[in-house]
Amino acid sequence: PAAQYVSAADAARVARMTAAVLVIDGRPRYHLPGCVHLLGREGEPIPVGEAVDLGFTPCGLCEPDSALLADARRV
Predict the structure, then answer these.
(1) Tens digit of pLDDT for each residue in 33-49?
(2) Per-10-residue mean pLDDT for the chain, 75 residues long?
(3) N or C: which end of the chain has fewer CB within 10 A?
């Protein structure tokens, strides 16, 4: 899938978060649980900040950054 568009400010906020996202070795995106791009694949949960540090980008379909930022605003 294409990467989710995220502003530089929002990307910086997400990079400091510790919430878990799912990654698949050899694939460039990180995902939320339930994303259709994970069907039939074993996703590895890691903190989103670590995923960003490793070069993963957010999935454009499940839009994990939007969900994580919305959750953070509710707290």
Answers:
(1) 999 999 999 899 999 99
(2) 94 96 95 94 95 97 96 82
(3) C
Q: How far apart are CA 44 and CA 21, in angstroms?
A: 8
The H-assigned helical ranges of 1-75 are 8-15, 48-53, 64-74
CB 37 within 8 A of CB 62: yes
Contact 48/18 with Cβ under 8 angstroms?
A: yes
- Cα–Cα distance measured from residue 29 to residue 27, given in angstroms and rounded to the nearest whole number: 6
